[in-house]
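$ ./design --mode recover --in tokens.txt
reading tokens...
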């Protein structure tokens, strides 16, 4: 098995511990004297064996902490049989600490229990055997050398894991915030696209149709009427654009943007459609409705009249806006027949915008050709939307 490459800091620790131990051996400073009963191998040279092994274990303190501890434990036991080296003891405490901090969680818990039990046994067994108060010092030494580093490593590991968990939560929160921001931007862009389409399409369609009539007919009276309608739609379109620009800029000056259209403006909307050449019959009794519902209903009627102006066959266009079972029902029907082509170009975004408005309010929407016995050829184009009314959120 190939051992992983040691960390640079671990190399520094191993070299420093080895040099420090050699210095202590050179000056003849050990942890025990030759007369100590546990000293089986006296002299400076036996100290070098556990010292060298322990410094080698320091190279593995981060790369292979369990292996380092398994090798270091017999080395520290061998050091007890010599005159001992303070450098060897200090490196062992560091290896115990590293095994808890960098090793697997199960091993870290196990090391805590084992060192704790050794500390208790090292305190009680010698005292019971010798009945001397000094025997308690053995347990104190074991606690300092083994259990103390293990407990310190456990505390550091817990703080490190808590910091890592906090960092991951912060990253997750940042990702969710970025996702919410992107969704908000996308939703706002879609809303702006719907508003721009609904504001401009109606007026520009009328301008395109009447400008075509003015160019194709060599009649001064007809041209004048067409130019009058073109001017009215241009002025109205500019006013609507200024209102939307004012909302987007969120102007803080005294010139506040005009209020959003409401269902009270349906009569004016129908009158404008009649001026553009549509035969519009309006049946509206919505009462008081929430502002979002009113705006959505107005925009649906506006876009439906624009589509009728561009695509409908000659005949009556019926608009019905009434309450029905806690919802606002919007129905717009127009004659549907064979035509050479639309009277004004379109992008096809109108139906998409109406469907999105209804979906945002949790309603239902359908649009398409259907049969109507009251029409001349039995075919009409019907737009139907059902918008739920929210209690307590009136306009």
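writing sequence...
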């Amino acid at each position: 098995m190939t051992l992983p490459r040691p960390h640079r800091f671990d190399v520094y620790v191993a070299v420093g511990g080895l040099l420090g131990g050699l210095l202590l051996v050179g000056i003849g400073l050990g942890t025990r004297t030759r007369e100590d009963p546990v000293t089986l191998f006296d002299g400076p040279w036996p100290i070098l064996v556990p010292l060298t092994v322990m410094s080698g274990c320091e190279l593995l303190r981060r790369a292979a902490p369990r292996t380092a501890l398994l090798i270091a434990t017999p080395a520290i036991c061998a050091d007890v049989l010599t005159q001992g080296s303070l450098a060897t003891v200090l490196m062992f405490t560091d290896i115990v600490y590293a095994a808890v901090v960098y090793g697997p969680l199960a091993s870290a818990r196990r090391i805590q229990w084992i060192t704790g039990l050794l500390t208790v046994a090292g305190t009680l067994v010698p005292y019971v055997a010798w009945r001397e108060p000094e025997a308690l010092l053995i347990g104190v030494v074991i606690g300092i050398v083994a259990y103390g580093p293990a407990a310190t490593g456990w505390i550091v590991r817990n703080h490190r894991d808590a910091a890592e968990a906090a960092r991951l939560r912060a990253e997750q929160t940042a990702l969710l915030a970025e996702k919410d921001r992107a969704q908000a931007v996308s939703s706002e862009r879609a809303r702006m696209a719907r508003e721009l389409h609904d504001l401009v399409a109606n007026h520009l369609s009328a301008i395109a149709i009447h400008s075509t009539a003015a160019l194709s007919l060599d009649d001064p009276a007809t041209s004048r009427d067409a130019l009058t309608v073109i001017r009215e739609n241009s002025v109205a379109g500019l006013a609507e654009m200024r209102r939307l620009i004012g909302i987007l800029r969120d102007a803080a000056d005294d010139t506040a943007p005009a209020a959003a259209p409401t269902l009270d403006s349906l009569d004016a909307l129908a009158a404008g459609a009649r001026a553009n050449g549509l035969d519009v019959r309006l049946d509206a009794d919505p009462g008081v409705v929430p502002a979002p519902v009113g705006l959505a209903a107005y925009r649906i009627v506006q876009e439906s009249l624009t589509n009728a102006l561009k695509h409908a066959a000659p005949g009556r266009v019926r608009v019905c806006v009434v309450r029905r079972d806690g919802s606002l029902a919007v129905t717009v029907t127009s004659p549907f027949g064979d035509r050479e082509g639309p009277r004004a170009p379109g992008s096809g975004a109108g139906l998409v915008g109406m469907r999105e408005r209804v979906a945002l309010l949790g309603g239902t929407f359908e649009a398409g050709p259907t049969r109507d016995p009251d029409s001349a050829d039995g075919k009409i184009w019907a737009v139907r939307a059902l918008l739920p009314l929210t209690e307590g959120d009136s306009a």
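exit 0
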